[in-house]
């Protein structure tokens, strides 16, 4: 008895699109990818809102400018005084805020997917705390010791970047045991965060009053007095690291299934995990070096993105755009809605801290069921 072979679908080998629930499977030769409409619609809508928030932010100040005039200025159609106000005084602050939010959002998505844990973020893993140690040491110890003189000569941004990279390397070294367990990663990260916070407190306690005040302003996370000198290094870093992070998306999908499954599918586990950690830490380091530790953005945004897109893991692109929108919008609120202008890091902490408590309570309830 013979069974007839099923008929081949027309165009199955020529890039045909197979409709699936919520999207389409696109095949080009041996390569296939699932294209979900929500994963495209969410970043596009967030980008439109980001442009609107950026225009509103660049129009607010002692010299108010309408949204239409801001857009005309960006297009090069305004007069010289208005162009100076928008492009030289206000645009750098908005651009730095958007790039910082983009970097933090992507970094948080990388960490949470890598660790398979929604609590994994640069804040809870101690990366931002390590960056704060480097920056505060550069401010407080500059000229007071040989190490402080070296840090002061490098500058606050470079010192913060070095602090983030060293903390990330220490985190990976302490966590690695023939692979990285997400639970152990979070526990060790919290310990490193505590050590970093203690070091920052010790440095501030022994600092001169003026140095301590300057360091305290920096560690709250602020976009005040940002210039193109702050924006350019961050833009170059994002231009290099973001495409690499997006290219790692397929490997991140494999890592979701666990270390043993990833090895069975032919993934080079050690190299992939190392590359993901370096990308995430690099994005955080440059973001913190440009604006200080703007906390909880990397924790909250990826979980918002995964719920809006309906995927199984935090999407990198949507997390980045939503992170940029959150930072720019929060900075706009602190300058225009609140009775007194505050650093943007204070508002993001006020948003993120209740969310962190909710995550912990929800996890405890699930563990007792």
UniProtKB/TrEMBL annotation:
<dbReference type="InterPro" id="IPR037294">
    <property type="entry name" value="ABC_BtuC-like"/>
</dbReference>
<feature type="transmembrane region" description="Helical">
    <location>
        <begin position="94"/>
        <end position="115"/>
    </location>
</feature>
<dbReference type="GO" id="GO:0022857">
    <property type="term" value="F:transmembrane transporter activity"/>
</dbReference>
<feature type="transmembrane region" description="Helical">
    <location>
        <begin position="127"/>
        <end position="151"/>
    </location>
</feature>
<dbReference type="Pfam" id="PF01032">
    <property type="entry name" value="FecCD"/>
</dbReference>
<feature type="transmembrane region" description="Helical">
    <location>
        <begin position="40"/>
        <end position="58"/>
    </location>
</feature>
<keyword id="KW-0812">Transmembrane</keyword>
<feature type="transmembrane region" description="Helical">
    <location>
        <begin position="275"/>
        <end position="302"/>
    </location>
</feature>
<feature type="transmembrane region" description="Helical">
    <location>
        <begin position="231"/>
        <end position="255"/>
    </location>
</feature>
<dbReference type="InterPro" id="IPR000522">
    <property type="entry name" value="ABC_transptr_permease_BtuC"/>
</dbReference>
<feature type="transmembrane region" description="Helical">
    <location>
        <begin position="182"/>
        <end position="204"/>
    </location>
</feature>
<dbReference type="GO" id="GO:0033214">
    <property type="term" value="P:siderophore-iron import into cell"/>
</dbReference>
<keyword id="KW-1003">Cell membrane</keyword>
<feature type="region of interest" description="Disordered">
    <location>
        <begin position="1"/>
        <end position="23"/>
    </location>
</feature>
<keyword id="KW-0472">Membrane</keyword>
<comment type="similarity">
    <text>Belongs to the binding-protein-dependent transport system permease family. FecCD subfamily.</text>
</comment>
<feature type="transmembrane region" description="Helical">
    <location>
        <begin position="340"/>
        <end position="361"/>
    </location>
</feature>
<keyword id="KW-0813">Transport</keyword>
<protein>
    <submittedName>
        <fullName>ABC-type enterobactin transport system, permease component</fullName>
    </submittedName>
</protein>
<keyword id="KW-1133">Transmembrane helix</keyword>
<dbReference type="GO" id="GO:0005886">
    <property type="term" value="C:plasma membrane"/>
</dbReference>
<feature type="transmembrane region" description="Helical">
    <location>
        <begin position="158"/>
        <end position="176"/>
    </location>
</feature>
